[in-house]
Design goal:
By secondary structure, the protein is of the alpha/beta class. The chain has five helices and four strands; from the N terminus they run βαβαββααα. The relative contact order is 0.18.
């Protein structure tokens, strides 16, 4: 996987851990190893500008996804074709506030948002109840699988 992470925010984050999660999520979704993904972390001002420009909604948000080649999940028998998956933009300041409310770490919130953004790049949505159930189920499975992998890695 070609995954590029660029932290333009003032908040230090564990970029290596986010990279491992993104690779795990893409592998779980059977995305071709030559697919490309960019993850950018920005401050609240930059996120607000993007949110207004692309979603016509005020204020900063936690995550935005910008698909490129509209790749879809593969299967064990057939990976996606190689291509540009797209960009995920994260706002660590918003993630930090959400993490405090949820009672977990900012990194765990960034893991959730990275997974969520990746699924959006792969065509998943949560506008309808059935879509939400599917997407959030896959999101949960990826996060649990990654947490187990990390636990084994850190032994």
């Amino acid at each position: 996987m070609s995954i590029e992470i660029n932290n333009e925010s003032a908040i230090p984050v564990d970029e290596a851990a986010i990279l491992r999660l993104a690779a795990y999520a893409l592998d779980s979704m059977h995305v071709h190893p030559d697919a490309e993904l960019a993850i950018v972390l920005v401050d609240e001002g930059a996120m607000e500008q993007l949110h207004v420009q692309w979603m016509d909604e005020p204020g900063p948000t936690d995550v935005l996804s910008f698909p490129m080649d509209e790749l879809r999940p593969g299967t064990e028998d057939a990976e996606t074709p190689p291509g540009l998956l797209g960009d995920i933009v994260l706002c660590p300041q918003v993630a930090q506030a959400q993490a405090e409310t949820a009672g977990h770490s900012t990194l765990e919130e960034l893991f959730l948002l990275t997974t969520h953004g990746t699924l959006h790049l792969l065509g998943f949505d949560h506008a309808e109840p059935a879509e939400e159930k599917e997407m959030f189920g896959i999101q949960r499975d990826i996060l649990i699988g990654f947490a187990l992998q990390e636990r084994l890695r850190n032994r």
